[in-house]
Amino acid sequence: xxxxxxxxxxxxxxxxxxxxxxxxxxxxxxxxxxxxxxxxxxxxxxxxxxxxxxxxxxxxxxxxxxxxxxxxxxxxxxxxxxxxxxxxxxxxxxxxxxxxxxxxxxxxxxxxxxxxxxxxxxxxxxxxxxxxxxxxxxxxxxxxxxxxxxxxxxxxxxxxxxxxxxxxxxxxxxxxxxxxxxxxxxxxxxxxxxxxxxxxxxxxxxxxxxxxxxxxxxxxxxxxxxxxxxxxxxxxxxxxxxxxxxxxxxxxxxxxxxxxxxxxxxxxxxxxxxxxxxxxxxxxxxxxxxxxxxxxxxxxxxxxxxxxxxxxxxxxxxxxxxxxxxxxxxxxxxxxxxxxxxxxxxxxxxxxxxxxxxxxxxxxxxxxxxxxxxxxxxxxxxxxxxxxxxxxxxxxxxxxxxxxxxxxxxxxxxxxxxxxxxxxxxxxxxxxxxxxxxxxxxxxxxxxxxxxxxxxxxxxxxxxxxxxxxxxxxxxxxxxxxxxxxxxxxxxxxxxxxxxxxxxxxxxxxxxxxxxxxxxxxxxxxxxxxxxxxxxxxxxx
Length: 541
Description:
about 10% strand, Glyco_hydro_100, five-stranded antiparallel beta sheet
């Protein structure tokens, strides 16, 4: 087996290794090459966008030709309020860009060369999304378009784990470029789960791809990419995987542990909120992107039915506020009929002590998991944020989630926003649920760690969170996550110069300065999907 040289970008970082798995060669079809060479659609200029009365006086750095200066000037987006960190963040974003055959196709997960790279030198589908949003807001569409096309091409590869073939619609978790000195060419190697921890396929990658395709289409006004037969087929393959009929009695997706952002054993197997919220959002985005041809109409009909069932299920059975908590506390068990109140036969004695103190008088959230005789009451940040963006949460529920964050600021934000999961698993529970995972010890990494990439929310909440982040992120060299009950310490295994920490900060800053950017990623409420919820969504006195 010939040695292969990693060549992720023109930055010159080289590492020799033996190929440990199957090398997949990416030969772009003539169609895809022609698409990538097409002129990009012209965006509405910055000056033509609606101005924000509260945050005005925007200005931008322009090239001599009057266009955004792009990769040649990492601080091509700025405003009178721009923090000194913004320029540094764009400089780091520029260094993170990943090239394939001289074209930018993504950003690497981290640029910390002081430790073994492992898979942090790869382009992760989920990690690239905040980078893509930052580039789109900054008028840099090329890298986003290339990424969408390249991952679409990777989807078509045969995917094998041992002797088992994965579904045709599975998108890769990540990919990287290697250089074969014998053949003197760059080739791609993708990971569909065969190299991942626990060998779990990424359920979320396909959803993120559809969501990003919609964001690109919405922001650029260019629908030609989404209307490509290849993109339409790619969406249908993803949808076929998650809309297929099986033994399910719920409209939610059944998943293994480690299938999403929390890619290690953390007890999220079953019906995790993160996957359900992404599933809902991807379905709604697909409705906007699918063509009204024969194949498209068949999927649209299936999507509409699933969305109605999914929204009802999530808004009723995953939602927790003070009233619902009190109802669960008083549940009867062993009910056998279609009129049962305790439909999942949840034992009231299984309610954790902490949730009674955590639940504020005003507020609520979507709990982590609901399945037969099991409710995971932990708070998961990403699932609740996506629920708001996708309008899976009703306006009342979205307000209640924000109320919860404000009421429990010390617990969920502390000294560094934002807790990805709360509370942390400890002692015997940690040993049983995580299998004694040394990376997910209490208040660390996925187990109660603080992740600065999750800088979102109401304007006043976002400003407070950004101010906290600006106090430390740059000084600490943009770490992946923070440890401790309040997020005081840099994560014990956190990578420095983590791209999604950098891009998350930039996206939050730009959205605050120009709230119209939010339309790229958010979806308005569909009134037809609003179920009749008999109880209140947020307890009031």
